[in-house]
Automatic annotation (TrEMBL):
Taxonomic lineage of the native organism: Bacteria, Bacillati, Bacillota, Tissierellia, Tissierellales
TM helices/strands, residue ranges: 65-83, 103-124, 145-171, 177-199, 211-234, 246-264, 334-355, 370-393, 423-443, 449-477, 489-508, 514-538
Keywords in alphabetical order: Membrane, Transmembrane, Transmembrane helix
Organism: Helcococcus ovis
Protein name listed in UniProt: Uncharacterized protein
Coiled coil location: none
């Protein structure tokens, strides 16, 4: 088992190393200093295992500090203000005197239990890279997955304990590190037990596991909302401190022992993992085709109806026929995502309506400043066009990029225009629901006409910005190879950079309106530069990888 863990960590080390070298080579001038060298994994290397484990350990601590420190420590700081105001209005001393650290302690403790629901099947997730790697190294799949169980458990328990201790010190919560360790062992043991119980279900079909994941995330969301709502009924925070005790640490160890025994007795661990990979398809087709199946369509699914497109020519003619024949299938693939987005938007609007009944002056005062920025950041999820561009690449561009005429400057500009219009049509329903939700929130919180118009402007800007962002990134970078894998890291990094700008603007923009206006200016400049980039760079960059 130690050999399996060593090989796994060595693989991760070389993957990260090669990615770093690949990225550094793309830097002008400096990139020439880095040799084009990629290492192959052959046998386990104890030194690399130690280096990779230390790096993984530090990265986990840093990521947890970043996530909990920003997400809980700053963004959810508003929860304390809401509870304080609620306590003052109703005379509840427990809520009136809450400090930032109290709420942080509550949310961090709660998050460990939420993970029990959110990651039921996390232990068995698989990818084609892992599948090929196991085959290449001649490892037993059962040994591979069991090794990951134990390794991840140890890393999680240690890093979560250390990260929480640091956060508690920052927020002046005096609690012994051993007590934190006891709680983490107990909380994670429940997650581990849930993963083992998960093995007892029937896994004859992949949709079953997909549906189970959806249900588990819904359960996690319900628990989170209920844990916040219950505060207003019991008039105080749930006391998680009783779980930070040696008795629960011992109980957690017993649960670990029992779970490990049950896991070792089960003989379907690799079967469950293969189901995530869709092993049946893997045995029938080439591994490289698996990713393409998510975006490709068969001839029988395309529309056979005839329509006259003789008034169009060139790239317009090709795109018109393509979207006419395939748009129905594309809509079916996106309809579930659209329904979920609309339900969430409607749910938030309804929640704000009921919350506004308290007439909290602070919420009414801060909401007009914060909501436009939240709307813009939400566009990252609401108007994500990643699937659309991969769909176009797999079913049209990949075949036509072999011809030079397809990369003509005038053709590219027309193609961007056509696809932008198609994307806006596909996203129109979600956009209209967003506008309706904004209107509902504005009425509930008594926005002025100016603030309502600003929200509408940010919604429109968000729609256009994220729609064009994905098209710009696709045409200027074109990161995909024939297997629809993003080989250029700039594509992912640029999208992540845009998301971070959106997120940071929420934190600072609510207190400084110059940030909000600066964000609008950034969007306008970005769109202009995007069209310039397509005009002058896409001719050289838009090609097969």
């Amino acid at each position: 088992m130690f050999r399996a863990i060593s090989i796994i960590k060595k693989k991760e080390f070389y993957s990260n190393y090669n990615f770093l070298i690949y990225y550094l080579q793309r830097i002008p001038l400096i990139g020439k200093l880095f040799k084009n060298k990629a290492y192959n994994i052959t046998v386990a290397d104890d030194l690399l295992f130690i280096i990779s484990t230390i790096w993984h350990f530090i990265k986990k601590i840093f990521s947890k500090l970043l996530f909990y420190g920003i997400f809980f420590g700053i963004y959810f700081i508003n929860l304390r203000k809401i509870l304080n105001d609620f306590g003052k209005e109703n005379g509840y001393k427990n809520l009136e005197n809450l400090q930032n650290g109290d709420v942080l302690f509550y949310l961090i403790s709660l998050s460990l239990f939420l993970g029990v629901f959110a990651y039921i099947s996390h232990f068995y997730e698989n990818t084609k890279e892992n599948y090929l790697y196991i085959k290449q190294m001649k490892m037993k799949p059962r040994e591979y997955h069991l090794s990951l169980f134990f390794y991840d458990a140890i890393i999680f328990i240690l890093t979560f304990t250390i990260a929480n201790k640091i956060l508690f010190l920052i927020f002046r919560i005096n609690i012994d590190v051993l007590r934190i360790l006891y709680f983490v062992i107990f909380g994670y043991s429940l997650r581990y037990l849930a993963a083992v119980i998960f093995l007892k279900f029937n896994f004859k079909s992949k949709p079953f596991m997909k549906n189970l994941n959806i249900v588990s995330w819904i359960c996690a969301a319900i628990v989170f909302i209920a844990s916040i709502a219950i505060i207003f009924f019991i008039k105080k925070l749930i006391d998680f401190s009783v779980l930070y005790d040696v008795k629960f640490g011992i109980l957690g160890i017993l649960i670990f022992v029992i779970s490990t025994y049950l896991a070792l007795r089960r003989d379907n661990i690799e079967e469950v993992s293969y189901r995530f990979l869709n092993y049946k398809e893997l045995s029938e087709v080439n591994v490289k085709e698996i990713n393409k199946k998510n975006y490709s369509l068969s001839e029988k699914k395309m529309s056979k109806d005839e329509k006259d497109f003789s008034k169009y020519s060139g790239i317009e003619y090709i795109n018109k026929i393509f979207f006419y024949r395939t748009l129905g299938v594309l809509k079916k693939k996106l309809i579930i995502q659209g329904i979920i987005k609309c339900v969430v938007l409607i749910g938030l609007a309804v929640g704000v309506y009921f919350a506004s009944a308290s007439n909290d002056e602070k919420i009414i005062k801060d909401a007009p400043k914060l909501l436009p920025l939240v709307i813009f950041a939400a566009g990252y999820l609401l108007f994500n066009a990643d699937f659309f561009i991969k769909y176009c690449f797999a079913n049209m561009d990949y075949s036509l990029l072999k011809y030079s005429f397809y990369r003509r400057k005038d053709f590219l500009m027309k193609s961007v225009k056509i696809r932008m219009i198609q994307l806006l049509k596909l996203q129109s329903v979600v956009f209209l629901v967003l506008i309706a939700s904004i209107t509902s929130v504005a009425i509930s919180l008594k926005f002025s006409a100016y603030n309502l118009i600003m929200c509408y402007i940010y919604a429109i800007v968000s729609l256009l910005f994220f729609t064009l962002h994905y098209l710009f990134a696709y045409y200027i970078i074109q990161p995909f190879n024939k297997d629809i894998e993003a080989k250029n890291p700039l594509y992912s990094m640029l999208t992540w950079f845009i998301y971070m700008i959106s997120y940071i603007s929420i934190i600072f923009g609510s207190a400084n309106q110059y940030v909000a206006w600066g964000l609008l200016a950034f969007c306008i400049i970005y769109v202009i530069l995007g069209f310039v980039g397509i005009k002058y760079l896409a001719v050289k960059r838009f090609k097969l990888r």
